[in-house]
Amino acid sequence: MRILITNDDGINAPGLKVLEAIATEIAGPDGEVWTVAPAFEQSGVAHCISYSRPMMMAELGPRRYAAEGSPADCVLAGLGEVLDVHPDLILSGVNRGNNAADNTMYSGTVGAAMEGALQGLPAIALSQFLGPKNLDPDVMFDAAAAWGVRVVKSLIERAPWQETADYRLFYNVNFPPVPAAEVKGIRATSQGWRPKTFFGTEPTTSPSGRRFVWIKGGPQHEPTAPGTDAAANLDGYVSVTPMRCDLTAHDALKDLETALA
């Protein structure tokens, strides 16, 4: 199996090393793992692409490249410039921090998987929820390292992929904020909503007197509805959420037609 991996935390992020190990085991001794990851951190860029400017790429080693672009850029570069044959699977992560609930919409990790799906390839985003039990760097990615291969193999072998759909499925995986030994299992979930979590701003002034604004996130441990991603994570489960790039609110179409008639 040939696997392309990327992330949004950057080419030197510890979570990417965890993903490399996961991908290597899945690819097998006769497989290939190719890495094309951002040269610098690209958290929060979602599905951004560098449409109006070129990006520099550097070959850092065998099958390992850094690109001065977004995670979606890295997928495009991997498919169009690095690999001579398309991969069998695209993996993105393992992100430092959760990409559940509303975070999904901002996530560069998810954006890379989204681009993979748009290119007609099976793609999975993987993120590690953080909390008091796994903030120590020594255990931060324990859950992802212990459960990553199991989750990805299950998706490859048994999950629906809808290869012929216009907008094919991709998967968003979040590992719970606990050590590996405390993970309870895997749950299929929908995307949740944290009612008290919103991005906002934090003003600051530089030593030279110039005014700047930081973008900051909200509380990450607010409960979401039962059966959703963040709720499962906070209960100790790995969440797996099927997604597609079609943003149409299909449930509202009939009401809209009536309103516009």
From TrEMBL:
A divalent metal cation binds at D8, D9, S43, N95. Its main location: cytoplasm. Its cofactor is a divalent metal cation. Keywords: Cytoplasm, Hydrolase, Metal-binding, Nucleotide-binding. It catalyses: a ribonucleoside 5'-phosphate + H2O = a ribonucleoside + phosphate. GO terms for molecular function: 3'-nucleotidase activity. Transmembrane segments: none annotated. Its EC number is 3.1.3.5. Binds 1 divalent metal cation per subunit. Residues 3-194 form the Survival protein SurE-like phosphatase/nucleotidase domain. Belongs to the SurE nucleotidase family. Nucleotidase that shows phosphatase activity on nucleoside 5'-monophosphates. This is 5'-nucleotidase SurE. The gene is surE.
